[in-house]
Write a structure and sequence with these properties.
Helix content: 10-25%
Strand order of the largest sheet: 1-2-5-4-3-6
CATH architecture of the largest domain: Beta Barrel
Shape: globular
Distance between the termini: 29 Å
Order of helices and strands: EEEEEHEEEEEEHEH
Radius of gyration: 16 Å
Number of helices: 3
CATH topology of the largest domain: Elongation Factor Tu (Ef-tu), domain 3
Strand content: 35-45%
Largest sheet: 6 strands, antiparallel, barrel
Structural class: mainly beta
Amino acid sequence: MFSGIIQAIGRIVAVEPAGQSARLTIDADGLDLSDIAIGDSIACNGVCLTVTSLVARGFRLDVSHESLRVTAGFVAGGAINLEKSLRLSDRLGGHLVSGHVDATGMVEEVKPVDANREIVVRFPAELGRFIARKGSIALNGVSLTVNVVTSDSFSVNLIPHTLAVTNLKDLKRGDSVNLEIDLIARYVERMLTSPE
């Protein structure tokens, strides 16, 4: 479980095919790895992945076929948002983020608003019922508040701090982003549609 508060920006050093899956090597020089062991979870661009080995300045992990199918951003040389999993004693500064990405969205617009930046993202139709104005959404693993939502898009506001400490600062029109809907909305929908 994660909070959507990014701890470092890493860099994907290598992407090695492993059948339909892939093995990534991450340079995580800005992330404190002193308490990380093989088997621990780290959110990489919002995807909960398991550390399979530690290397100088970083770690390796495997990405399954299913994760590759529903995510974007796992390319060699790419910047990647990193967050270690929560401890029970940690503050929850963002919202509960599982690291189970639902789909990718596409950036439709990026526009400056004073020192901030507004990002408009088009989402797949099946996610529409989970996205609400003033609700939470994770974008590349970053916990954000939805400002405006339409039938097929939503907007979020990025403050200067978020721009400085995440890879969202590099987003441009046409980019794909990983979307995770609010965990609570997911369970409410299941309860309302599940047979008795």
